[in-house]
Design goal:
The chain has no helices and 14 strands. It is mainly β and 194 residues long. Pfam families: SH3_3 (PF08239).
């Protein structure tokens, strides 16, 4: 998956990779999206729709020419080579942002990240893998001020091939209510193999 930035003032998100397809949302200049794959001139993206006061991620299509790739995450994967020479490759899949409302804004937000890994390790033991993910949210308060907050979490898996998810919680301040939240960065890596 590739993280990309929108480079036009307004970019329609389509239900299917066609200009005749229904628009299901729009993006503004500078917004960050995750590109799952490219289909012809179209990029299938994961985006946070913020629909109904709740931030949910969904897939849609945009014209790829209006995006600038920032960096690769998942996909080809973070590669970790052990002392024994085996490679472990991590791929990050879907992300989901859920924010719970309280009063004028959000009380907390939770980001769920799905991941999988595989390895060419062929030893007799069952290795343990520690995966660390850091997520940065762009948070806008009721007065229009935006700030970034980052949190990280780790998970431990066992075996040469597995999948799972990491949930990262953001407790938000009630003193300056947050009214909009979106994922601005995700960084996952294999921290250790033992």
């Amino acid at each position: 998956m590739v993280m990309a930035r929108v480079e036009v003032n307004s970019l329609n998100i389509r239900a299917h990779p066609s200009p005749e397809s229904d628009a299901i949302g729009s993006l503004s200049r500078g917004q960050i999206v995750f590109v799952v794959r490219v289909v012809g001139d179209w990029a299938e993206i994961i985006w946070s729709n913020g629909n109904g006061g709740k931030n949910r991620t969904q897939n849609g299509y945009v014209a790829a020419e209006f995006l600038t790739a920032l960096r690769q995450i998942g996909g080809s994967g973070d590669t970790f080579t052990t002392r024994r020479g085996a490679e472990f490759i991590l791929s990050v899949g879907d992300s989901d942002l859920n924010c719970r409302e309280y009063g004028q804004g959000f009380e907390d937000c939770e980001v769920s990240l799905d991941y999988s890994y595989r390895s060419d390790y062929n030893g007799n033991d069952d290795p343990s893998i520690r995966i660390e993910c850091e997520v940065t949210l762009s948070l806008t308060d009721v007065e229009g001020f935006t700030q970034n907050e980052s949190r990280s979490e780790t998970a431990t898996e066992h075996g040469i091939e597995n999948s799972g998810s990491i949930d990262i919680d953001f407790q938000l301040s009630p003193y300056s209510p947050i009214v909009n939240a979106r994922i601005s960065d995700v960084d996952c890596e294999i921290d250790d193999v033992y």
